[in-house]
Amino acid sequence: MNPPLPLPAAARDDARWLAAFLAAELAAADFDHAGHLRAAGLLLQRHPLPEALPLYLAGLRGLATRLGVPGKVHATVTEALLRLMAAAGAGTPGQPWTLCLQREPALHHDARALLARHYSPARLDSEAARQRFVPPDRLPLPPCPAPEPT
Known about the structure:
mainly alpha
């Protein structure tokens, strides 16, 4: 049996960074909006949405708790943006997760405006939406591609 091929440096860096996110070991400076997108994109590359979502939420909650802001995680914003990333192709096999940012630039540049297409301020700002995912009251979220059979 042949030994596995070494991962390219970028993939090793991504794997290390994702492991640090999941273990809640990232510094606050390493987890701005781009860090949120990176964690979500890397998880969607490795897992179908139903598996990526609880991993992402657990990572966010662990990191927020370690950083002293446990109430900062917003369940609806988190899930809606993860679904929007998946619908824009973040989990497409053989494609970089960043492709979704080209297909839906608002994910990076104006996520709040993107969410406003789907959610009224009253619904998104509600305590219920902070605690658990609530469905949109404007446009429905786009369907996510079905995972490819393995």
